[in-house]
Amino acid sequence: MVAPFLLAVQFLTRLPVPLKKRPSESQMRWSAAFYPFVGILIGLGIAGVFRWTSGIFPAEVAIAAALAFGAMLTGGLHEDGLADCADAFGAGGTQERMLEIMRDSRIGSYGALSLILLFLFRFALLSGLAAAAVETSLLLAHAGGRCAAPLMGWLFPAARHSGLGSSFLAGLGPAQVLPGLLTLAAAGYWLSGTDFALLLLLPGFAVACLFCLFCWRRIGGLTGDALGATVLIFEVATYGAFAYKGAA
After folding, report:
1. How far apart are CA 197 and CA 209, in angstroms?
2. What are residue 75's phi and psi, to 5 degrees?
């Protein structure tokens, strides 16, 4: 299980992970089971930056620094997927045309706008939280998003029948999804008690499911870009749940 874990770290972050040999399809498939755990590690790193910088600067500066560190740590992997989806769905047209736009590495006006709005929503929601809630939400939002993506990939079909995204989706099943759900549930219980998953994680899963239903209707299923966008949608929904609980 070491190789699948290292593959998950290599794919989800920019950390240098040495692999002695080319991974097998089985190892690639099993790496999805470790996505939520890697998400916890990512969240811990981002929360650590927030805690360190909040001792020196105002909270708003610390939040901006934490978000910037997160983008550097992950290489903007999921942000790229969100921007590609925004460009495709914003342009509209036939299913084939939208899938073609998703393949284009260039960013358009819809994609740029989606990234600006993403940062504004994340910053605004986190700015309204107490410091302890910021750290907890960062950790669990990143873990939950990387749990939601394999889950949605298992529940929904692939929009394409070739390529890296379709191969990944085809290999997903309960064996890859359930360990991630258990990891997320354990983290939520440890951090916030038994009611955490019910009140603060379910909105993320619900919004992620609605987005995937939208993708299924518009392009016939999911792509790698759609899964990347799902991670960020879950993240923002979780921050919103924390903000709502804090304001209630």
Report:
1. 16
2. 70, 20
Q: What sign for the dihedral angle of Cα 238, 243, 245, 248?
A: negative
What is the residue type of 187?
Answer: A
pLDDT digits (tens, 9 = 90+) for 136-149: 999 999 999 999 99
CA 232 vs CA 26, 52, 83: distances in Å: 27, 24, 11
* Helix or strand run (H / E) with residue 179: helix 174-192
Assigned token pair, 196: 């955490």
The CA distance from 230 to 154, in Å, is: 13
- Residue ranges of domains in the chain: 37-247
Q: How far apart are CA 241 and CA 243, in angstroms?
A: 5
Tallying the residues shown for the chain, one arrives at 248
Read off the pLDDT of each residue in 58-87 and give the average, rounded to a whole number: 96
pLDDT tens string 189-217? 887 665 555 578 899 999 999 999 999 99
Whether the full predicted model's pTM is greater than 0.70, yes or no, is yes
Scan for tokens 């529940």, then name that residue: 155
First to last CA, the chain: 43
For residue range 117-172, what is the model confidence (pLDDT) as tens digits? 999 999 999 999 999 999 999 999 999 999 999 999 999 999 987 666 666 777 78
The CA distances from residue 125 to 45, 112, 130, 136, in Å, are 19, 20, 11, 13
Backbone region of residue 15 per phi and psi (left: phi > 0; alpha: psi in -120 to 50; beta: other values): beta
